[in-house]
Design brief:
Layout (H helix, E strand, L loop, with lengths): L3 E4 L2 H13 L6 H23 L12 E6 L4 E6 L6 H9 L6 H10 L5 H7 L11 E9 L8 E5 L4 E6 L6 E8 L9 H12 L6 E4 L28 H12 L7 E7 L5 E7 L16 E5 L2 E7 L11 E6 L8 H4 L3 H24 L1 H21 L4 H7 L1 E4 L8 E2 H6 L8 E5 L3 H5 L5 H5 L4 E4 L4 H8 L1 E2 L2 E5 L10 H17 L1 H10 L4 E6 L8 E4 L7 H9 L9 E5 L4 H12 L5 H16 L7 H14 L1
Parallel strand pairs: 2-8, 11-13, 16-17, 16-19, 20-22
Antiparallel strand pairs: 1-6, 2-3, 3-7, 4-5, 4-7, 5-6, 9-10, 10-13, 11-12, 14-15, 14-17, 18-19, 21-22
The chain binds adenosine-5'-diphosphate.
């Protein structure tokens, strides 16, 4: 093979420029990224070696070497892992495969370049971090297995790279960094030692140093302690170490919100170290987001993102699981129906839900932070995890009509705060919080001191079907069916009042009904209004209006469901319309007023009046009359 020059894909050049030029601090993270890649490469070699002995024919002792040449000002990171073929080298280091560079560049701009190290990891562009400190990067690699040839990749990060044949007798990868001016720091043993301690102490393979330009001696003291944190008793897992491990695992530079160590013995045995992050990653709500835990079997790394170990609605949980109950030569497919995996999964699910319940009770503010970040994902569980339904219900939090701003309340707290006369849990599904807070439907309830839960997450539409009841109290939608509130006497009194109004205003309701016959199913008097003149109410089992709009927006067929227009018998507008009717049955303004009432009711729930131009015109005319 002769030397060939390749042009980076346009986007890669962009990323390189961003990485090289926008990062002013934390250049040091390049070392963490390269050591992490070396460790992954060894993990993969070890795993393949379990089934394909030719991969480990040379009986390797796994290692990662840091080799400094002070005269040449080079730092090399060498591993004896899986290595890369020419094709893989070209593909892995010439193209950014997964999330795409556009998203990377955008995220970089949004984060105002402060969190570049975090983004580098998240977007799988760790290798390019090398260009922050190196003017040229050379990769010499030989893939493990029979019949492979060594290849050399080289680039100055300036738009192109070369690929050519190379000489290398042992499989693995060496990455040589020709350091930029001012980067001599990274030639010092103490500095490299410090960085390994800081970022890579728990890497499971020895990281050794030499500044002779040659590989370090086998008996040189490793810079890392190689301690598998999750294997140690809880008392020996310091917060500092677990936090570092968390960063290594997730590329999240904030410490985790909560660390959950697990050591399970009995029917199934495993150890785990789980983390709840503080913040949701940019991709949490993306479909097909990778999730799951890292799985080890007896110290051997089997795979990242093992989704079989976690239900999807816990996809924010990060961590590792190490089990000795599984066979070593496992594959995802084999584990699909594995009883041990199922037991581990249900154990982990129980532990996470239990930890959340404890947090909710003991550290409510922390729990609120958690729920604000991940509540939307957790809610999916209500729909999918029937078995843990009660536990999940207890973990839910919602906004409510009587609580300010974004304050959240649990169902248990809602029930605790219910006045004695209140029998049921009231909720309203609305487009957004502002609309919900001002919805006419909740007036009468809040005035009596009854709180109303406000559901404004798109997922709440689905969630509510599963909630149904809590602590023996039914969940009742305030904008559906005939609402009856209070004690039996109060209910009877309200009913009487409505019946009386229905008699008094019979002609008026008939007129409005006739005028709006294509738009509403019925016109009647309401028990739920105090300040507003009217509102729209659906049948008990009807679709929610916002759900209906959502389905229409998705071009789905929605049967036309006419709702009921409810009027407030105490409102001055109704009395006025009645007297207009009595004065002149044919007063054309009555029809206009009926349209205005209907338009108002729509506006109050965040929708538009049927004919907005006519609506505004009518309002303007009315204003001019006053
Ligand atoms: P990521 O590691 O997040 O996928 P990188 O840019 O760091 O992104 O690396 C790209 C790919 O190059 C890796 O996924 C891996 O396949 C390959 N690679 C990088 N370093 C090594 C190495 N030391 N040995 C073998 N393959 C490597």
């Amino acid at each position: 093979m002769s030397k060939k020059t390749h042009i980076f894909k346009a986007e890669i050049q962009q990323v390189l420029d961003l990485v090289i030029h926008s990062l002013y601090s934390k250049k040091e993270i390049f070392l963490r990224e390269l050591i992490s890649n070396a460790s992954d490469a060894i993990d993969r070699a070890q795993y393949l070696g379990l089934t394909d002995k030719s991969v480990v024919a040379d009986a390797p002792v796994w290692k990662i070497d840091l080799i400094v040449d002070k005269d040449d000002k080079t730092l090399a990171i060498a591993d004896n892992g899986i290595g890369m073929s020419e094709e893989e080298l070209d593909k892995n280091l010439g193209v950014i495969a997964n999330s795409g560079t556009k998203a990377f560049a955008q995220a970089l701009r949004e984060k105002q370049q402060t969190n570049v190290p975090e983004l580098i990891g998240q977007f799988g562009v760790g290798f390019y971090a090398a260009f922050m400190v190196a003017e040229t990067v050379t990769v010499i690699t030989l893939k493990r297995g029979e019949g492979q040839k060594a290849v050399k990749w080289s680039s100055a990060g300036d738009g192109s790279y070369t690929l050519e044949e190379a000489a290398r007798d042992k499989p693995g990868t060496t990455i040589v960094l020709k350091l930029r001016e001012g980067m001599d720091d990274f030639l010092n043993e103490w500095r490299l030692h410090e960085l390994v301690k800081k970022y890579s102490d728990f890497i499971a393979y020895p990281i050794r140093f030499s500044d002779t330009g040659e590989a370090p001696k086998e008996d040189a003291q490793p810079l890392n302690t190689m301690k598998a944190l999750w294997k140690r008793p809880k008392s020996e897992q310091t917060e500092e170490e677990t936090n570092k491990f968390y960063t290594h695992l997730t590329h999240d530079y904030n410490p985790p919100l909560k660390t959950i160590p697990m050591s399970v013995e009995g029917a199934v045995e495993f150890k785990a170290l789980l983390f709840l992050p503080k913040q949701a990653g940019f991709d949490l709500m993306m479909p097909n987001k990778k999730h799951g835990l890292h799985l080890y079997v007896r110290n051997v790394f089997i795979g990242a993102d093992f989704d079989l170990l976690l239900p999807e609605y816990l996809r924010f949980v990060k961590g590792v699981v190490d089990s000795s109950d599984l066979p070593l030569n496992v594959s995802r497919e084999m584990l699909q129906d594995d009883a041990v995996i199922r037991k581990i999964k249900s154990n982990i699910t129980g532990k996470v839900l239990g930890t959340l319940a404890e947090m909710m009770a003991d550290a409510p503010e922390t729990y609120t932070d958690f729920f604000t970040a991940f509540g939307r994902v957790l809610k999916e569980g209500l729909h999918n995890d029937y078995e843990n339904g009660d536990k999940l219900k207890a973990l839910m939090m919602f906004r409510s009509a009587t609580r300010d701003g974004n304050a959240l309340i649990s169902l248990a707290d809602y029930v605790k705060a219910m006045p004695e006369t209140q029998q049921e849990i009231y909720y309203l599904i609305a487009e957004d919080l502002e609309t919900a807070r001002h919805a006419p439907h909740i007036e009468a309830l809040t005035q009596r001191g009854y709180d109303v839960l406000l559901f404004t997450d798109p997922i709440d539409q689905w969630v509510v079907d599963t909630l149904r009841e809590f602590d023996g109290k039914k969940l009742v939608a305030v904008d559906k069916g005939a609402l009856e509130v209070g004690t039996d006497e109060e209910k009877a009194a309200a009913k009487k009042k409505i019946e009386a109004a229905a008699g008094d205003f019979k002609e008026l309701t008939a007129l409005i009904q006739e005028h709006l016959k294509d738009d509403v199913k019925e016109v009647r008097f309401s028990p739920r209004l105090t300040g507003s003149a009217c509102c729209l109410v659906a049948d008990e089992h009807a679709l929610n209006p916002s759900m209906e709009r959502l389905m229409r927006a998705m071009n789905q067929e929605v049967p036309k469901q006419l709702r009921t227009l409810e009027l407030n018998p105490d409102h001055a507008v109704i009395a006025r319309m009645k007297s207009m009717l009595e004065t002149d049955k044919n007063d054309t303004r009555l029809a206009d007023y009926a349209d205005l009432l209907f338009g108002q009711a729509l506006l109050a729930e965040g929708a538009s009046p049927k004919n907005p131009q006519r609506f505004t015109q009518l309002v303007a005319e009315l204003m001019a009359q006053v």
